[in-house]
């Protein structure tokens, strides 16, 4: 997405969180780990790399929710579209993964995409296109 001059940002969690996700945004329940952590599946990242890092919910969070919030993105227009492409893993135990949009003039988060545990125990990929005439967070 377009934020402060960078046209796009690749985020792979190999060394830290990416520019779009600040350390502050790593809410309780989320951990950065890899497939060798001994925490159960997934045992590799979406490329099949066992030492590749990804974000995961800790096992203590099975019965509650945890959120991630991006930095502020600038308004979109015909020149600056926002596409967020992400890989995700939904296990049999997990509930629902939801992507929400919060525009700066609104107090509420609007759900723009979600998936539940029907595609189980495999990496999937999705791309979301966002249009907003004002600053927003995802």
From TrEMBL:
Lineage, highest ranks first: Eukaryota, Metazoa, Chordata, Craniata, Vertebrata
Designated name of the protein: MALR1 protein
GO-annotated cellular components: membrane
Species in which this protein is naturally found: Pardalotus punctatus
InterPro entries listed in its UniProt record: ConA-like_dom_sf, MAM_dom
SUPFAM superfamilies: Concanavalin A-like lectins/glucanases (SSF49899)
Domain MAM residue range list: 9-138
Pfam families membership: MAM
Source taxon at top rank: Eukaryota
